[in-house]
Amino acid sequence: MTRKRKLFGTSLLATSFAGLLVAAGIWAGSPAVATANANAVTQEVGVGGTVRLLRLGVPQDGRLGDLLRKNAKISAGFDVIPRASMGQLARATDFNAEQWSSLGADAVIMASKVGPQIKLKLYEISKGNKPVLAKGYPASDELAAANKFLNDVMAYYTQEAGPFGSRIAFVRTRRNPTVSKNIQTVEMNGEAPSGITSNRSLNILPSLNPGGGVLFTSYAKRNPDLWMSSGGTPTRISKYPGLNLGGVMSPDGSSIALSLSKDGNSEIYKIGRDGSVKARLTKHGAIDGSPSWSPAGQIAFVSSRAGGPQVFRMSASGAGATRVTKKGSYNQSPDWNQGKGRGQWIVYSGRDSSNRYDIFKVDVKSGKTVRLTQQAGRNLDPSWSPDGRFVAYSLNGNIYVATEDGLNNIQIAKGASTPDWGPRAY
Q: Which CATH architecture has domain 6-158?
């Protein structure tokens, strides 16, 4: 997966609404100045320094309306008006700018079903009764319609489509009758769960491939081997003696980086999709693991060569390994941002001096480090969205999605760990 004053971690996407400067949320992207872990707090100030989220009305009832409101909240660009507070407008079939303005709305999404299509329209109150965005989608799939429209809405405001429809892989643990771990996936809004494995073994460390499919390590054959699922029966890719851990596909889909201990020490190797070793990338007495590819083909990884685990980076050939994390004594689980214009950021989990785990990101060019989470518990295993504007992570056995600066945290899966965010779906 491979990313002025601002609100929710982004440059202001400003539009004039009766003298207000309105921010369209997290979408434009750059390092945050807002307080980390603010949960969807609307900020308002006057002209010259005032920002607030767009107040959005979605009157549609049923599953489609629920999905549109849910996606709008996760996007972090909107303060979504509760349907229960809309009064008669909750049953409106036609748009009336004056009526919605009296409710305090800045924008409204109207939905209708016409034959085999769902018609979705975005209105801005300041622009009258003509929609600024109108799209049609097959009525047979309300989830896809809600996802695609929110992607189109984000593209309308930012010239870059959103990541709705992309999937997040994770591990779910069962302890009855014995402990087992299986790989599942879910869409970024927590919808459409799907199982990848369903056995009584330990299946861990999922990684969604750029071209589809899931890499994971499984003990199904009693050794921690690397497997890949592309929709059918999983195939064992790497079965060298010892560890075959943390496999991640290169951005071009030609190679897999993973940790192997076949020669006695945990080192990072590059193998082909058939499991053949192409190159050994690290040769050090320390433990090396957890590789992650950059958009340009570099590799971030974790090594104990500096004492405790720290994040390093190297070229795709293994040359020029340099330390990236300079703060903290225990940093792990790096993920390199694949988003446009965000390729300098690596997100990782770090333990601070008070022995708590939080999510951080580091700029590999400047060395600047930003703390993304500050809530109690173990914040672990971060993973960037395909556009680099969001991050998924686990907290106390649940999966959350937040903005690229750790804001607007929303739980999307319970009883889950080690998330990995896959490519854009649409």
A: 3-Layer(aba) Sandwich (3.40)
